[in-house]
Amino acid sequence: MRQLIHSDDLFKLKTHIDALLLAKDGEILSLECRVKIKNGDYRWQRSYDSVFRRTKSGSVWQSIGIVFDIQNEKRIAEQLQHREEELLEAQELAGLGSFEWNLSTGNSVSTPQVFKILGLQSDFHLEDFIDKVHPSDKCRVKMSIDKAVKENGIYDAEYRYVSGKSEKILWSRGAISVREGQPVMKGTVMDITDRHHIIQRLQRSEELYKQAQAITHIGNYTWSLTGNTFTWSDELYRIYGEEPQSDIITYEKVATYNHPDDARLVTNHIQESIQTLEPFNFYYRIILPDKTVKILHARGEALTDEAGKPYKLLGTAQDVTDRQQLIQRLQQSDDLYKQAQALTHIGNWTWDIALNKLTWSEELYRIFKLDVPSGGITFEKYFSYVHPEDKALVTLHIKEPHDLYYRIVLHDGSIKTIHGKGEVLLDETGNTCKMLGTSQDVTEEKMVEKELRENRNFIQKIADAIPSIITSYNINTGKYSFVNQGFDKLLGYQPEQLLNEGISFVIKLIHPDDLSPLMEKNAQALEMANAQHLDVHNEMVVEFQYRMLHKNGQYRWFHTFGTVFDRNSNNEVENLLNISLDITDRVEAEQVVFAMNLELQQSNASLKEFAYVASHDLQEPLRKISTFGDRLLYTHRDKFNEEGKMYLEKIINSSIRMQQLINDLLSISIISGNKSFETYSLQHILNEVLLSLEHTVEQRKAVITSANLPEVNIVASQFRHLFQNLISNSIKFTSPQVVPLINISFEYLSPSDVSQFNLPKSRTYLQLTFTDNGIGFDKIFADKIFAIFQRLHNRSEYEGTGIGLAICKKIIENHGGVIFASGTMGRGATFTIIIPG
Length: 837
Fold this sequence. Notes:
Number of helices: 24
Structural class: alpha+beta
Number of strands: 31
Strand order of the largest sheet: 11-10-9-14-13-12
Radius of gyration: 64 Å
Distance between the termini: 132 Å
């Protein structure tokens, strides 16, 4: 056992054993000493020993004891002893005195500090002390002492004490005890005047601190790592939307507030700080019970015990939600500002003239196609990019407020146009110290301006070259904004005169008979244009015809096309564009044509009368020639020789052929005048024609096929002629030994498909195709076969007057269409018809 006891404690052990040998029964002795443990360290232990058994002679034979490990207790005791010594020194420095008063005799024993504090002589009684207590506190002090005497307890009082002219604030505490029947008061007295003032200041500081926390939204906390509990300041409760409470706040409860996306972040930062003992500083989000999200700025560090093990975290949490949102908005504003600079190609700059240092925005570096340097850019570097021809201009204005355009030459040789603006900053002496400004890349803008100028000049030249008057004027002011040279060429007046005088000048030129109708029509057109303001992309065009006075005194006819040029913010018409053509020659020509039309109508009437005569009076002699010639040949055949018979037959045949010619000519005349269009089925017309040609079709065994032909807007009687002539032609011009095969088909075409034919406008067009296997024709006759009286074969080979296809062409033209043919000798022919569908 002795081997385990620290050498410095062996004497204490010997003394303890000796005392134990002399101890009485039931007496307990204690020993504190250091004992070596297994790892070689010494630890403080306390044993309690007493006599357990004795010999018959009364000597101690056996003892019993209990041993406690008091290593921590010893360490704490040493700390307390050290602190007590420090406290005594502090009390001495603080003027703390102790005393002992016999309340029965009134005598007192005090330390010198008591006399110093109370300002009393060495001999004084309790009554002397009570007399100098401040009147307002005297009763409270006496009651406290009387209560302590009665209960033999502790008194505790803070009071004011009048010492000379001063009113010291004293704090005293003591105990009342009874010794040999006499009550004795032991305690301390201390001048706490300064401390009281300090406490007041501290309280004020605490209030200010809490106010500062509330203003800055900073709350502080203490986190006990051993107990895993928190102590929060009032502001931290407010940040978390909780009421201050006495309940223990656990880490688990605090963790429930953390935003799910930031929970791992918080854990990692805290664990890293505990492991490395480095302060933590990070931002995270919390979600309050009402779903409000806040952004907190956490700062803190770990505290360690004597062994260097962290046992507590001290930190602050600041509600920076508004600040972070403001920062985000500022960042967004900065991003938008940079984006705006990039979109508008505007960079800003600051030039510190004294330091010769330029500060450029990122966009300015992009304009100059430069990387952002770490050390900034100098004026000389910038000036080296200025175009040689513009350096004098820049030098002249650079150190004064300016707004100028100049060019720069980049390192790749490209040239840009810059719009520079600058302002001057003056120092205290009024001298220029800095320049602030912007530089905008307006290269494209200048190119566009140049193109616009060129286009304006081009348009002006075109407008001046056109033989018409082109004007634009404001309907509200009556002023013209554009007049071309046509005003001079067509009316003999200078455009400047119209620009200066406005619409009133034009009114004076308009013929009096045309002015009122023209103004009325113009007002109606303007009202309609404003009513149709929603369709601004399809402005209406209005036409006017009127006369204006030429400078030579003669009136000229004009045809004006007017439309809306632009509208105001309310979408109402503001400016009109007029294009006026001189139609004097056309009007005069129309007058001539009108006269000629009258003559033509009279001529047509005569032709109709002639046609009537031809159809009745001319055919009557022909019918008699044919009839009597045929009767003469039949009744007197035997009296004629062969030559006479031949002459008589030719007379008869010629009269019959003349009748056919007259009938065909009458057909053409009738076709030209018939305009009775109706929707009719072409298939029905085909069936009617085949019925009328039934004998011919059966005789030649002809095969006629067709699709189900559609309905179309036509003159049905004319299309019967058309179908009959084309089918008859195909059968007639087929070799006798060949069975005629005729196919009729159709399809619809678009306007682009028929653009080469110059047909009337229509959404669709119908194409009919007649194809046969007849004798065909040489392609050189494709156009000639539609001419009147045009024959490709002798009359002895194929009968006919040569008018049938001419009638077909006339019918198709009457329907606004076109007909053409194609063929190959011996391989058939195709007739194609296209009419508006």
